[in-house]
Amino acid sequence: MGKGGGCVPSKKKRVPAVASDPPPPPASESAAAATPSAASAKLRIFIVFYSMYGHVEGLARRMKAGVDGIDGVEGVLYRVPETLSAEVLELMKAPEKDEVAIPVIPSAAEMVGADGFLFGFPTRYGCMAAQMKAFFDSTGGLWKEQSLAGKPAGFFVSTGTQGGGQETTAGGVNDNGGRKDRVDSGGCRRGGG
């Protein structure tokens, strides 16, 4: 492939503006006056992640910056609960987490208050980290009641090496026969099996 961006579009090239596209019509003042709360209400996207060494946290913060850059949308960062003991984390040389800046999500039930989701996690041998799996497993009641049905969701993953399992993990999230929920373009919904 040589040196170059491959399939990645160049950041130096700009998409030319199409002169035939008319500018969007100005917002009607009467419509804005009719719904004053609509202007102040923001869509809330929960960015729920697990990060042992901080790499996925960095991605989550960047996701939040992107979400916050959209008018009328607010990103809310949450960590999932840690399943490893403090002693094990110390042996693994994992840095301490700042749970004041980014809190641990109190429970899966908290997700009902979101309008959409982004989930982030590192891969472990081609699978999501056990901490994230444990969190997803705790959503059984939400699945049963279809509390998240129709809410859009996406995910992002990270590995320590190129070809370290990102593709396998990404495929496994949607193609997990025993999973209760699937994340797809239609949002969270009841899966098969």
How would you characterize the overall build of this protein?
It is a single chain. The protein is α/β, with parallel strands linked by helices and 193 residues long. The chain has a single domain, classed as Flavodoxin domain (Rossmann fold), CATH 3.40.50.360. It has helices at residues 29-34, 36-40, 55-68, 86-91, 130-137, 140-145, 166-174, and strands at 43-49, 73-79, 116-124, 127-128, 153-158, 181-184, 187-190. Strands 1, 2, 3, 4 and 5 form a five-stranded mixed sheet that branches. The longest helix has 14 residues, at 55-68. The radius of gyration is 20 Å and the shape is globular.
What are the defining features of this structure?
193 residues, globular, 20% strand, Rossmann fold, 7 strands, two-stranded antiparallel ribbon, alpha/beta, five-stranded mixed β-sheet
Q: Can you give me a brief rundown of this structure?
A:
The protein is α/β, with parallel strands linked by helices.
List the helices and strands and how they pair.
Elements lengths: L28 H6 L1 H5 L2 E7 L5 H14 L4 E7 L6 H6 L24 E9 L2 E2 L1 H8 L2 H6 L7 E6 L7 H9 L6 E4 L2 E4 L3
Parallel strand pairs: 1-2, 1-3, 3-5
Antiparallel strand pairs: 3-4, 6-7
Cofactor: FMN
InterPro entries: Flavodoxin/NO_synth (IPR008254), Flavoprotein-like_sf (IPR029039), FMN_Rdtase-like_dom (IPR005025)
EC number: 1.6.5.2
Task: Kindly provide the name of the CATH class.
Answer: Alpha Beta
How many distinct domains?
1
What is the overall silhouette? globular
How many helices? The count is 7
Distance between the termini: 42 Å
